[in-house]
Amino acid sequence: MATRRKPAVKIGVTGLGEREEVAPGVFINIAYRGCTPGFISTEEGVILVDAPLIPEQAQDWRSQIEEECPDKPILFVFNTDHHRGHALGNQYFMPTTVIAHERAHKEMSGYTENFKERVFNSFKREPDIQQQMTNIEIIPPHLTFTDRTRLLYGGREVDLIYVGGHTPATSIAWLPEEKVCFVGDVLWVDQHPYMAQANSKEWIEGLGLIRELGAELLIPGHGPTCTPEATKRVEEYIIFMRGRVRDYYLAGKNKNEAKSGLVGEMLAWFPVPQDRKAKIESQIKSGINRVFREIQREEEISGGGGVDDDSDENDSDD
Q: Helices in the chain by DSSP H: which ranges?
């Protein structure tokens, strides 16, 4: 299956863009903010993968779906995880059934008024967008699964598979006939992966599972399509971080020392726009926090050395 690769888009873009057909009846839009949503047209209706964060974009996406698939109902919205960029737009595709991993339901059911306020305040420098975020309605999954489940509708097979790694809820949508896989945020291309809720060992296993599927085209949670080869760079990044954190732990260093020493090393792995450097550094520190705790547990189980680290547990992104 051949498809033209689109140029990388800048994070934070707020345009509407046009849908791109990456396989017969399978569409994506890489212009939206928060995620790259997709939809799959079947003879019985439409299956969505993720929902745009910005209301104007979510409404535009629904219009594009209705234009492409007139008179077809929206059967499901599948959220690849519970993060706002993938799931907060669910409300604009009702009535339908939202499906996600069971942990996504647990997380989204806990979204309070305080969460909504934090989302609203996060756009204080973008008043036009902030004004759109005044009527947030949380729509948690109506159906959940644990390991995997299969949707069989209108001549399509869509396998929903839990991979974890990025979050305790991260899952993928695999179309075996089309050899296309929506991989969510388990794959970041030319970007530092967001690891504030990560399980790094599980993440590496998930990337291996994706390569074993036999996909010809991957659709990451952000940005343009790619091939399974792209999974190797983020895997190398995570393996490198694990190894260096282990070095620090075995040398008797604590988390703060590991963060201070490793942020510069990790920054060099992917492009860092100057206007986002501080945010990405903070993001990397959150990832190092998570990995440090993993390595600490692994070494304690194996009887390795290191330190008991109770310092600075400010993991505000968790």
A: 55-68, 84-87, 102-109, 113-121, 127-132, 200-212, 231-250, 255-267, 277-302
